[in-house]
Specification:
Elements lengths: L1 H13 L12 H19 L2 H30 L8 E6 L5 E3 L9 E7 L3 E2 L8 E11 L5 E9 L4
Antiparallel strand pairs: 1-2, 1-3, 3-5, 4-5, 5-6
């Protein structure tokens, strides 16, 4: 009996501290931790498409603002008396003006404008007018359409 106790004590002293029962995680605890980790990762991964869509919409909105500035500058540089009743502008993915005549493969945004009748100011001493341009901005890739309007003052040209 003495020998069995000696062997048992010898066996316990040879075990490393991490192999002892009191210092280790149980299999249930490890499985529970993995389940919590995978659940939180799944929740975070489900937010990625929403964030990507919001980012894409923000980029498109900024490009549309740049496009509106280019169209406004182009219409203001035209003589007020000879503004066309309607027309189109074509832009690439970087909101750079491609031209006003034809649509090519590089076109990402198409802007159609229609100028409404000129409105004269009521004062008798001035002949200044104001023309409203209705814009239709179409994203050629996504087929998304937005409406905008510009008010063009008589710039004396």
């Amino acid at each position: 009996m003495n020998t069995k106790r000696f062997l048992a004590e010898e066996f316990e002293t040879r075990l490393s501290p991490t192999c002892r029962n009191e210092d280790a995680f149980s299999l249930v605890e490890v499985a529970f931790a993995i389940a919590i980790l995978s659940f939180s990762l799944m929740a975070m991964m489900s937010l990625v498409p929403v964030a990507l869509k919001a980012s894409r919409d923000s980029i498109d909105k900024n490009l549309e603002i740049e496009i509106l500035q280019v169209v406004r500058a182009s219409l203001l540089n035209s003589p007020y008396s000879s503004l066309a009743d309607s027309g189109s502008f074509f832009f690439d993915a970087d909101a750079s003006l491609l031209g006003t005549t034809e649509q090519t493969e590089e076109v990402r945004f198409k802007v159609d404008y229609v100028n409404e009748e000129s409105t004269n100011f009521p004062a008798a001493q001035t002949a200044l007018g104001l023309r409203t341009s209705r814009l239709r901005i179409e994203n050629v890739l996504t087929k998304q359409v937005r409406q905008a309007s510009l008010h063009l003052p008589d710039n004396g040209l």
